[in-house]
Write a structure and sequence with these properties.
- This protein has 216 residues and is α/β, with parallel strands linked by helices.
- It folds into two domains: 71 residues, Response regulator (Rossmann fold, 3-Layer(aba) Sandwich); 124 residues, Response regulator (Rossmann fold, 3-Layer(aba) Sandwich), CATH 3.40.50.2300.
- It has eight helices and eight strands.
- The strands form two sheets. It has a five-stranded parallel β-sheet with strand order 5-4-6-7-8, sandwiched between helices.
- It is elongated, with a radius of gyration of 20 Å.
């Protein structure tokens, strides 16, 4: 926030004896280990990384107030963000034609210090792969023209000559029976349904980028 940021506000609350017992939760755009350390020093109970989903916010509030014992999405300030530094700088090709979804996914990736490169169609995916290398492809299934399934199949066909395997994470707005099987049959390695939740996205990325069998 301008003028007085959230950390300074938390410090003043923590030092004000009239506010003893008041619990503070932090909403941050930067999920970094030094933020967690500052939260501990200032007596902040929990912090969440934006964009914050409604269910995760409710869970965090309930945990902070002692109404439940385990959160679904919020991080305790004692925990450093998982895998953020290990994934820093990894290049992710994001194939998504919807501008709102592109913006949301971009923010999620940048909060894990990943480098998103954006395209809007299957054709653009194939063109990007001709001149650049990527650690992961995040692929929307329902793209106009050449859809995600066709694009994944084309990539896997090309890789028969190169011997490389780029992990492909599918995203689909239609979570229907058989979708997962179609994605895997086309050569994709994992599958997420929209709206994409940050925790599920990070878990999938951690899995795909840490499994040596899925890399080059």
């Amino acid at each position: 926030m301008p003028e007085m940021d959230g950390f300074e506000m938390a410090r003043r609350i923590h030092e004000d004896t009239d506010l003893t017992g008041v619990m503070v939760m932090m909403l941050t755009s930067c999920d970094l280990s030094n933020d967690a350390q500052r939260c501990r020093e200032l007596g902040i109970s929990r912090y969440l990384v934006k964009p914050v989903m409604q269910a995760d916010l409710l869970d965090a509030i309930r945990v902070t107030l002692g109404l439940v014992t385990a959160p679904r999405g919020a991080q305790p300030v004692s925990a450093a963000p998982a895998h953020a530094e290990a994934l820093a700088g990894r290049r992710v090709l994001v194939a998504e034609d919807h501008p709102v979804n592109r913006k949301l996914v971009t923010k999620m990736l940048e909060k894990r210090l990943l480098v998103p490169i954006l395209v809007t169609s299957g054709t653009e995916v194939l063109l990007a792969l001709e001149s650049h290398t990527f650690d992961l492809i995040l692929m929307d299934v329902q793209m106009p023209g050449m859809d995600g399934l066709q694009t994944a199949a084309a990539i896997r066909e090309q890789e028969k000559e190169t011997g490389r395997h780029i992990p492909i994470l599918a995203m689909t707005a239609h979570a229907m029976n058989g979708d997962r099987e179609k994605c895997l049959a086309a050569g994709m390695d994992a599958y997420l349904s929209k709206p994409v939740r940050a925790g599920e996205l990070y878990d999938a990325i951690d899995y795909l980028l840490s499994d040596p069998a899925l890399g080059a």
